[in-house]
Design brief:
Blueprint lengths: L4 H4 L3 H13 L2 H8 L3 H15 L4 E4 L2 E4 L1 H28 L5 E7 L6 H11 L4 E7 L1 H10 L4 E4 L9 E15 L12 H4 L3 E5 L4 H12 L5 E6 L2 H9 L4 E5 L11 E3 L8 E8 L7 H21 L4
Parallel strand pairs: 3-4, 3-5, 7-8, 7-9
Antiparallel strand pairs: 1-2, 5-11, 6-9, 6-10, 6-11
Helix pairs in contact: 2-3, 2-4, 2-5, 3-4, 6-11
The structure holds 2-phosphoglycolic acid (PGA).
Length: 311
């Protein structure tokens, strides 16, 4: 007998809501991500549960526990929505490059230069939309594993996945201190001396933190972490406020005026890498995505290198 389930499920929007609640593990967070009220979310999920005549989840304390039916629904919702995206891509290709969406997920530190990469591309293709997601390295790896976006930008590529990549600009990490710090006047600082002062670190999952830990471990040293802070901007302000010294990508301090910060000449501090655009070889790319990869490889890369030639 042919299934009529599709006729009972209300709308694709309900599936999108279900996925958001499942992924955020919270109705509140899903409501913020989708710009819907919490009662709307609960109502839509109730309707969805009624359409299959089974509960999708149970609320245990503050936690949502998805039922077996809920999990199965999530899997199917993912497939249906991915098929819609696929259809959207094909339709965009049929329309030429006049419309469509380019989805990029970039690590936090990349947000400083990505707009300069996207600007000229958007000028060239004014009809396209960009969906830019920013997260720390661990969060972007998860998106890559789920195949959520067209491209991902990392400076430390995940080692467990096979990827296609385009390297487009270098990333240099620099040590910073506030004006007036005992290290700020020095003309040369050893790594050992650097490790004696309070250090402000990025959170677990950050690529910056990953690179710093790997580097210092290779020297059998470790910075004296005083605070863990989930944002480059907050680290910059905490450094200026005298809470400690830090190491960040040079991109975070490249523009934006004088910060009352000093770059420290730490001998042998060499944590250099390159920013790469990455994607899974098996992912099916839209025409816009293919065009973007070509653009990054040529004009995009050249434009950024020119802009950051002073670094
Ligand atoms: P982060 O990543 O913003 O997560 O620290 C930066 C990087 O990968 O270099």
């Amino acid at each position: 007998m042919k299934s009529r389930l599709h006729a009972h499920i209300g709308t694709f929007r309900q599936l999108e809501i279900l996925l958001a609640v499942y992924e955020h593990k919270s109705i509140k967070e899903a409501s913020e991500a989708l710009y819907l009220s919490q009662p709307t979310i609960s109502m839509q999920l109730k309707k969805l549960a009624e359409s299959i005549n089974l509960p999708l989840y149970h609320q245990i304390g503050r936690k949502l526990q998805f039922t077996e039916a809920g999990q199965a629904m999530v899997e199917t919702a993912r497939e249906i929505l991915q098929s819609c995206e696929q259809l959207d891509m094909e339709l965009s290709s049929l329309r030429g490059l006049k419309s469509g969406t380019l989805k990029l997920a970039v690590v936090t530190t990349a947000k400083y230069f990505i707009p300069y990469l996207l600007g000229p591309f958007c000028e060239k293709f004014p009809g396209i939309d960009i969906k830019l997601t920013v997260g720390n390295r661990q969060q972007i790896i998860e998106r890559l594993e789920n195949g959520d976006d067209d491209f991902y930008v990392f400076s430390h590529l995940p080692t467990t996945l096979t990827l296609e990549t385009i390297e487009f600009i270098s990333n240099q990490l620099v040590a910073i201190a506030p004006l007036g710090h005992p290290l700020a006047e020095k003309s040369s600082i050893s790594l050992q001396e650097f490790c004696q002062y309070d250090f402000l670190a990025r959170e677990q999952g950050s690529g910056t933190r990953y690179a710093i830990e790997k580097f210092f471990a290779s020297k059998e040293l470790s910075p004296k972490t005083k605070m863990t802070i989930e944002s480059n901007e907050a680290i910059i302000h905490s450094t200026i406020a005298g809470l400690g010294i830090s190491i960040l990508s040079a991109h975070t301090i490249a523009f934006g005026g004088k910060y009352d910060l000093v770059k420290l000449p730490v001998q042998d501090l060499k944590i250099d890498s390159s920013w790469s655009l990455a994607w899974r070889p098996e992912s099916k790319q839209s025409m816009i995505a293919r065009e973007f990869a070509q653009y990054v490889q040529s004009e995009g890369k050249a434009g950024l290198s020119k802009k950051y030639s002073f670094m």
